[in-house]
Amino acid sequence: MDSDDTIPDWMTESDLAIGASAMASPDPATGIGPGPKTATREPAEVLTEVFGYKAFRSLQADVISHVTAGGDALVLMPTGGGKSLCYQIPALCRPGVGIVISPLIALMQDQVEALRQLGVRAAALNSTIPFQEAMAIERAMRHGEIDLVYVAP
Question: Closest Cα partner for 84 from 104, 103, 100?
Fold first, then answer.
């Protein structure tokens, strides 16, 4: 690690290895762990400006609003139903790095490439990534240079 790449006391090396964000500040109430994150962009703005859509599909707006506000969600939609936007948009609305855990490396790589073409600072960490590239991705995460990272378990 570079000398300026310090790890907060509450984070371990294994947290970095699985892609946890070191960008969040400690919770002001407890002084440990990442503090609450608040939205810095509106979901509808991201939908239009980044993805080029004018309106959300069916329940996407409800799910995205809930997740952007810090809530948890289990979303079941058919193929092509717009599930990806339900985690991509909240990640782009909130500060820090959004973490997507996916066992599907090929799909992960396709989504990262598509996001990059849209101007989203996205990356993937999985067993196919060379060590030096993985270290560069982790460094970029710590420096706030990545918005969304896909990791394989």
Answer: 100
In angstroms, rounded to a whole number, what is the distance separating the alpha carbons of residues 91 and 104?
Answer: 19
Q: Is the pLDDT of residue 11 over 50?
A: no
Rounded to an integer, what distance in angstroms lies between the CA atom of residue 123 and that of residue 108?
A: 9
> What are 63-70's contacts with CB under 8 Å, separation 24+?
64/89, 64/90, 68/39, 68/43, 68/93, 68/94, 69/39, 70/36, 70/37
Q: Is 134 helix (H, G, I), strand (E, B) or coil?
A: helix
Position 39: which residue type?
A
Over residues 20-79, the pLDDT tens digits come to 333 344 445 544 444 455 568 899 999 999 999 999 998 899 999 999 999 999 999 888
Considering only the C-alpha atoms of the chain, give the largest distance between any 2 of them, rounded to a whole number of Å. Answer: 48
What average pLDDT does range 79-103 have in this prediction? 92
Contacts of 39 (CB under 8 A, 6+ apart): 68, 69, 93, 94
